[in-house]
């Protein structure tokens, strides 16, 4: 069994073709912000595209990026023009005038160009160094203190996310691979890794921060447009590095609060006597050692928390859409879909699979 490439979650999210909006690119390059044209929800959906950003942190970084691109292009153009001019204006000296060999000589005055070039390059480099250092200081901390924190633990090959309510520990909860943040609010991200070095990156919102075993790295993120943004592990971490993606939802404040409330709740108990109850028992035996469903006796810590699995749009680190078919395929043969992932093929029977899937469908 192989993965059908068309069944994967589209890189461009929501099937939206990759598109640069020149007006916003210019505005950003000139140090401004993206014009806040009223856009329908999800219009900010972008693929792994970082030249246009939708969050305070990314917005601060992008002018430097454009300036570096502009200077690099300018250098290539100027150098190419000089080389071409030199070739066209070349005069072949007559090296053997009257049978005598004449040494090649350089016309005087050329050294001035070299000095000018050196001075100019040095000034430009110093300028960019100063800009970079200043920018790094400005993006080190958000403009105001974040109201909550997400503890993200990178694992081969998925993202564990623990939302921490600073005032009410009972409202803290765990989820995986699909993160939600409220519109226009800075959120602190505390990064850990349990195995190898990974790196957290949601290009349209902010730069990269490594997740290093034995170390805690902190960063922050902010989304200023409602939408879904793709994130990706950006430090090679093993066989399924490519499929270690994530989806970051920037929600309107009310939607975010509703999402948090739903996530913090335990799973609804399955109705007695239903197939879902049989499924829950099979799940506890087959899957409960690795997966938690809050409110049940399954409390494994190896894989993603599945308490509200159905609230997620994708599974297996944004690799597959969360549909009935993909979910069945994943449970039956994770190693065929994502070879090397840490979920083993459990060899369950057809009826067991049916019961477990029916049970999982109740976890919304
Ligand atoms: C040995 C531990 C282990 C066992 C047993 C196990 N899983 Fe998993 N499971 C994982 C890991 C690890 C992942 C993350 C895989 C990845 O994305 O790379 C995962 C991912 C999943 C996901 C996707 C979750 C998401 O949001 O991405 C589902 C659904 C799932 N498992 C269901 C099951 C079911 C049902 C069973 C029992 C038949 C089961 N698992 C047994 C470890 C396990
Ligand atoms: Cu990784």
UniProtKB/TrEMBL annotation:
Organism: Aurantimonas manganoxydans (strain ATCC BAA-1229 / DSM 21871 / SI85-9A1)
Entry protein name: Cytochrome aa3 subunit 2
Highest taxon listed in the record's lineage: Bacteria
Keywords carried by this UniProt record: Copper, Electron transport, Heme, Iron, Membrane, Metal-binding, Respiratory chain, Transmembrane, Transmembrane helix, Transport
Family: Belongs to the cytochrome c oxidase subunit 2 family.
GO BP annotations listed: ATP synthesis coupled electron transport
The keyword Nucleotide-binding belongs to this UniProt entry's keyword annotation: no
Positions of transmembrane segments: 64-88, 109-131
GO molecular function terms noted in the UniProt entry: copper ion binding; cytochrome-c oxidase activity; heme binding; oxidoreductase activity
UniProt lineage: Bacteria, Pseudomonadati, Pseudomonadota, Alphaproteobacteria, Hyphomicrobiales
């Amino acid at each position: 069994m192989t993965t059908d490439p068309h069944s994967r979650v589209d890189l461009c999210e929501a099937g939206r073709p990759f598109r640069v909006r020149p007006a916003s690119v210019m505005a950003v390059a000139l140090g401004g912000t993206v014009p806040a044209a009223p856009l329908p929800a999800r219009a900010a959906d972008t693929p792994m595209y970082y030249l246009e950003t939708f969050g305070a942190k990314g917005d601060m970084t992008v002018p430097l990026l454009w300036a570096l691109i502009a200077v690099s292009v300018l250098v290539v153009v100027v150098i190419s023009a000089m080389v071409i001019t030199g070739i066209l204006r070349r005069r072949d000296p007559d090296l053997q005038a009257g049978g005598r060999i004449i040494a090649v000589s350089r016309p005087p005055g050329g050294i001035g160009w070299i000095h000018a070039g050196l001075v100019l390059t040095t000034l430009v480099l110093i300028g960019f160094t100063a800009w970079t250092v200043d920018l790094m200081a400005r993006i080190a901390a958000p403009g105001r203190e974040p109201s909550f924190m997400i503890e993200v633990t990178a694992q081969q090959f998925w993202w564990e996310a623990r939302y921490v309510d600073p005032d009410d520990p009972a409202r803290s909860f765990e989820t995986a691979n699909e993160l939600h943040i409220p519109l226009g609010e800075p959120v602190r991200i505390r990064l850990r890794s349990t195995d190898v070095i990974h790196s957290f990156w949601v290009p349209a919102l902010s730069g990269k921060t490594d997740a290093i075993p034995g170390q805690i790295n902190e960063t922050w993120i902010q989304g200023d447009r409602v939408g879904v943004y793709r994130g990706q592990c950006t430090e090679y971490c093993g066989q399924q590095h490519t499929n270690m993606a994530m989806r970051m939802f920037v929600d309107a404040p009310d939607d975010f609060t509703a999402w948090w409330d739903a996530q913090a709740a335990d799973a609804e108990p399955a109705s007695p006597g239903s197939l879902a109850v049989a499924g829950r028992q099979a799940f506890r035996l087959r899957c409960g050692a690795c997966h938690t469903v809050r409110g049940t006796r399954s409390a494994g810590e190896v894989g993603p928390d599945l308490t509200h699995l159905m609230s997620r749009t994708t599974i297996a680190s944004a690799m597959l859409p969360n549909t009935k078919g993909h979910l069945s395929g994943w449970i039956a043969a994770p190693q065929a879909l994502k070879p090397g992932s840490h979920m083993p093929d459990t060899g369950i029977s057809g009826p067991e699979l049916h019961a477990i899937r029916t049970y999982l469908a109740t976890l919304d």
